[in-house]
Each structure stands twice: as C-alpha cells, then as structure tokens.
C-alpha cells in the first residue's frame, strides 16, 4: 500500500509564508542588478522599467488569469493559496527597501543567488499545494496531466522569455539572467519529483 503524507494546515501556512518570503528575496536581488528571469516575474521586472507601475502591481495583475486557470484545474484551495502567495511576494518586493538597501552587487552573483533563492522558495510553495501563479500553474498542469517535470516545462518557457528580452538588456546582463533562470529551474528539476516522496509499506 502507498500513500502521500499530508501536511497540517499550520505546516502548510508556515511553509507557504516562508516560501513567499524567500522568493521575494530572490526577486529583489535580480531587480537590484537590473536582471530578468522567466515567467510573469520576468515580464513584470521588464515592464516595470518602462512604466510607473511597481513590480508588485504588475506581477499580481499578470497572474490573475493563471489564478483562474489554477482554480479550474486544481481547485479552490490551490487557487486561494496561490493568490495569497502572489500577493505576499508582490508586497514584500515592493516594500523591502524599507528594511534594507543594497549599495552594489555583482550581476553574476545576483543571478546565482536570485535564481537559487527563487528555486528554493518555489519548491517549498509547490510542496504545499500552491504556486506563484503564472507559468508555474502551467508547469504543474503539464506535470500532473502529462508526466512532464515542472522544472523542465518552466525552464523552456523561461529561456524563451529571456531570449525575447535580448533587445532590452545588455548581453552581459542577459547572460547573468539566463544563468539565474538556469539555477532556478535546476533546483526545481532536481527536487520537485513527487514520486520520491511516496511512502510504501
């Protein structure tokens, strides 16, 4: 007999809050270095450079259609948790400068640490039946429906978005952004494998 261990509601909320906080730190590192990433996060970072709207506002609005998609495919609980995560990331990134500021950072380091933090945070969020919205929902859908690892789907989408950003950032910043996206998706590909966490007895 096999089963998938369940987390308590308290465990879920602590993990989701922690994941959102860690993701927001990663986004902030990318933002401070002028780097991009894939998905709606990358689109929001890019568009925020050309509008008066903040990253958080753009990020949340871009994710609304995907929250609806998540609700239809994965249920109300998943959708509500994902909306909560998206709102938390938006708020933290927009207001983190009130807590600390960064004077200077090497872009390559920002790409590495930003991608790593976002990957770890997203992993925590995925494990507790939620997502960041955006293409994460599509990646989870593909894993659930077709057995394609979420990390592989996310990596393909992210690379496509980064390549499309070629005309908006310098080659060096683009290279650092690609490295960050690769690290993020490597964390997910290596660790987000539900089959490893089924207990048999």
From TrEMBL:
Subcellular location: Cell membrane
Source organism superkingdom: Bacteria
TM region positions: 12-31, 43-66, 78-100, 106-126, 159-188
Keywords, alphabetical: Cell membrane, Membrane, Transmembrane, Transmembrane helix
UniProt keyword Ion transport present: no
Pfam family, one: YitT_membrane
Protein name: YitT family protein
Organism: Grimontia marina
